[in-house]
Amino acid sequence: xxxxxxxxxxxxxxxxxxxxxxxxxxxxxxxxxxxxxxxxxxxxxxxxxxxxxxxxxxxxxxxxxxxxxxxxxxxxxxxxxxxxxxxxxxxxxxxxxxxxxxxxxxxxxxxxxxxxxxxxxxxxxxxxxxxxxxxxxxxxxxxxxxxxxxxxxxxxxxxxxxxxxxxxxxxxxxxxxxxxxxxxxxxxxxxxxxxxxxxxxxxxxxxxxxxxxxxxxxxxxxxxxxxxxxxxxxxxxxxxxxxxxxxxxxxxxxxxxxxxxxxxxxxxxxxxxxxxxxxxxxxxxxxxxxxxxxxxxxxxxxxxxxxxxxxxxxxxxxxxxxxxxxxx
Length: 328
What we know:
Blueprint: H1 13-34, E1 39-43, E2 50-56, E3 81-99, H2 100-104, H3 112-144, E4 150-152, H4 161-169, E5 178-183, H5 185-198, H6 203-210, E6 220-222, E7 229-232, E8 237-246, E9 250-254, E10 259-265, E11 272-285, E12 288-290, H7 292-295, H8 301-304, E13 310-312, E14 322-327
Parallel strand pairs: 1-9, 4-14, 5-6
Antiparallel strand pairs: 2-3, 3-11, 5-8, 7-8, 8-14, 9-11, 10-11, 12-13
Helix pairs in contact: 1-3, 5-6
């Protein structure tokens, strides 16, 4: 006689996936707007562990002086290609398991949609935060590893208006490309306090009334992400990293279809409902390529946050994702 197994019973997978996708899309759209298009969360099916995008490199010395008195041969210049490489991060949801009895104790009767609604809401937000933190971790690591775009506040100082200006100065005539600041809340309020204490006419009054700093006409995304606060040294000290990002600087692209399963688990003292899911997304940093040989596939947070695993793909540092400011 055939015996049914727990894996034979699946309920509301489609509903749960639809609900998660709806919430994730809403959150992602809001975040894309909030960052002025600097951090992009999107979806596109991608095979494999890496995504490669070829591009033509700028030809050095393409325009040069011509000697009108010479008939000697000229040296050929070559049009070459490089590639941007984004890395896929594989993730899981749960598993989350609850007895039916636990729901009957808090509501009139057990509701499958109530359970999946709660998990979908939390899972979608967790997924978005995971994508955000991972791309911030990658962006910070890549930029900090390049001295040309790193500015450190002198004397282990906190963030100041001058710090923002000096950070932008790293990009010279292309400072206007920076469209958004991403900073830790501690850095944000340090900046508010500094501008109030500076007692600049009109500026301090503005800050006292609104509690917001002047950020050189660029929006600020505040995130207490561990990617922006790094502990190092002995004794241990915390360094905060503020990212000044250009358009499309960081990419978090959902690259595989979310797969969520809801099982009815029998054979135990109580009936159990278990939810488990899987998803994957590609993380990329503008102007850089993931070092496949050193970083490897499906990297953990430590590997993702290692600057040497992100190699510059472009020649001009002004084509990087932006600048980074280190403060205490």
